[in-house]
Amino acid sequence: MISLRPLRQLAGAFALAAVGATSLQAQVVWTDWTSTGANAVYGSMAIGSGVNVSYTGPFSFAQLGCGTDYWTPNTYTGPGVPNAPPACDIIELDAGGLKTITFSQAVLNPYISLVSWNGQPSVTFNGPVSVIANGCGYWGCGAMSASGNTITTNGGEVHGTIQLAGSYTQITFTDNSENWHGLTVGAAAVVTPEPSTYVLMATGMIGVFGIARRRRA
User: Fold this and answer.
1) pLDDT tens digits in sequence order for the chain, 217 residues long
2) Comparing C-alpha atoms, which of 14, 115, 101, 117 is closest to residue 72?
3) Mind giving me the DSSP string for 109-158?
4) Which of these, 117, 179, 201, 214, could form a disulfide with 158 (CB 3.0-4.6 Å)?
5) Looking only at Cα atoms, what is the longest distance across the chain?
6) Single pTM value for the model
């Protein structure tokens, strides 16, 4: 009769390795906005060797470095977004029109967090969009939904995080003029299993194969 114990041990080794792997959750790397120009804001995301990010279009002002934390209370986290934008960085828009966010290399499934998007009954992006989280924020409460490339708001003070599906070197959208509404952009960091996870898997497999070999002998 063939013993199932080696198979159980192998399954146990993989289970332990899986626990180690799932404990690693990809953090969202939010853009560090560092400088401004004429209708432009520049920054970078610390992903890989670094991704340069630029915003072009009219804006009211950009908060570079610390200031008012418009990202509190936290209504920006949800599936795939374990961490909210940092307290400092935000671009604040007042004049409506075409806006463009450009990446120096393709970014997969980017996130955009929004502050106080009132006066924006619908905004269409250049790709399919989904709502990750929304609720009450610094300026009050509102709600939004997504369909295709468009987000629709209920007219309240919308705060939350959306995600565009796909690979992008540019994100474009057109908004409406109002007092101001803010945004920042980010993407998930690439997380690979720790070396200890590979060691655990290899050790378990070697042990099981060794037991099976001795039993055959």
Assistant:
1) 545 454 445 444 444 444 444 445 689 999 999 999 999 999 999 999 999 999 999 999 999 988 899 999 999 999 999 999 999 899 999 999 999 999 999 999 999 999 999 999 999 999 999 999 999 999 999 999 999 999 999 989 999 999 999 999 999 999 999 999 999 999 998 644 444 444 444 444 445 445 445 555 4
2) 115
3) S-EEEEE--TT-SEEEBSS-EEEEEEE-BTTB---EEEETTEEEE-SS--
4) 117
5) 80
6) 0.79
